[in-house]
Write a structure and sequence with these properties.
2 domains; DUF4307 domain-containing protein; DUF4307; 3-stranded antiparallel β-sheet
Length: 138
């Protein structure tokens, strides 16, 4: 009776692929998959660590003031590594969010990490806001 139970179990294992070679194959695939995940994670950590925050740039709107129907004053700050030249595009918008003024400013390298700037730009009609469109490393 015990022999037939073992034979029946062996037959079921063979039928459904639960053989020693299948177990080895599954274990090998699991080890290879885990090794690939570890390799990709390690490569990402090295890549992110080597970047070390170099070249990071942050620009924030501080204030705007509508000076007249033809001009708007924009105040903003730029945070970037010292000695790094930056360019910024400023825009003025009307009450329909249409761009009515645009100016690209080249900022000289600064000796401080965060520097505040104010610029007056001309508009084609009365603006209701002035803001930074975007800044980039020059």
């Amino acid at each position: 009776m015990a022999g037939t139970a073992i034979d029946a179990q062996a037959a079921l294992d063979a039928r459904y692929g639960r053989t020693p070679s299948a177990k080895r194959r599954d274990r090998l695939l699991l080890v290879i998959g885990a090794a690939l995940v570890v390799l990709v994670f390690t490569a990402w950590v090295i890549w992110a660590g080597l970047d070390n925050g170099q070249g990071s740039l942050d620009a924030q709107d501080i204030a705007h003031s509508v000076v007249s129907d033809e001009t708007v004053s924009i105040t903003w700050q730029v945070s970037v590594g010292t000695g790094t030249p930056v360019s910024c595009a400023l825009e003025a918008q009307n009450d329909l969010h249409a761009i009515v003024g645009w100016k690209i400013i080249e900022l000289a390298p600064s000796s401080t990490y965060t520097t505040q700037y104010t610029e007056v730009i001309r508009t084609s009609q009365r603006a209701v806001t002035g803001l930074i469109y975007r800044c980039w490393l020059a």
